[in-house]
Write a structure and sequence with these properties.
The chain is about 30% helix and about 15% strand. With about 200 residues, the chain is an alpha+beta fold. It has a domain of about 130 residues: HIT-like (HIT family, subunit A), CATH 3.30.428. A hairpin with a 3-residue loop joins strand 1 and strand 2. The longest helix has 22 residues.
Length: about 200
């Protein structure tokens, strides 16, 4: 395999680690900060409200600190701290409730309206070509925080890095969360303004 002269990859410089493994052509992108997520740091150990639930705690913080993009009456929009793609939002009812069937009509309406507003804001800021929208109900379905319902809005682009997490075990995020939050908050339009 021929490498460009300025390539940081030098197979001859790879060193075996105690005889384990063999040199290969892959670059390594070390992301030790993700160990907090993998090991469940700050993940509530109980499904009860106030038992360390981050979705109950976030509304008590300032928007920039909490990464909250917009607050409605019954729910709020917040950036995912561990995003799948840049601009990955979660829509969360203020009330600590685990199941979609337990939401009040006002909470359902706010989450639906926030979904529309989130899509419009992300398109305005980044030109997203599409979205994955959904929620995982219960731990068995993949909910990271099963005790407090939240809906994901994940922007997608043609040719985005969708292969990276699957094949490369790497997530590519070109923008800091604080910068993404500021852009989305500035471009968030309430439903009345869009009509």
């Amino acid at each position: 395999m021929t490498q460009p002269p300025d390539s940081p990859y030098r197979p001859e410089e790879l060193v075996r680690q105690g005889g384990v493994g063999a040199p290969d052509p892959f670059l390594r992108m070390w992301t030790p900060h993700r160990m907090a997520y993998i090991e469940g740091e700050n993940k509530p150990t109980s499904t009860q409200a106030g038992s360390g639930c981050p979705f109950c705690r976030l509304p008590g913080l300032g928007d920039a600190e909490a990464l909250i993009v917009h607050r409605a009456e019954a729910a709020y929009a917040v950036l995912n701290l561990y995003p799948y793609n840049p601009g990955h939002l979660m829509l969360v009812p203020y009330r600590h409730v685990a199941d979609y069937t337990e939401l009040t009509p006002a909470e359902v309406a706010d989450i639906a309206t926030l979904t529309q507003q989130a899509m419009a804001a992300v398109r305005a800021v980044s030109g997203a070509h599409g979205f994955n929208i959904g929620m995982n109900q219960g731990e068995i379905a993949g909910a990271g925080i099963a005790g407090h319902l939240h809906q994901h809005v994940v922007p997608r682009w043609s040719g985005d890095a969708n292969f990276m997490p699957v094949i490369g075990q790497t997530k590519v995020l070109p923008q800091l969360l604080a910068d993404t939050r500021e852009l989305l908050a500035k471009n968030w339009s309430p439903e009345e303004e869009r009509e």
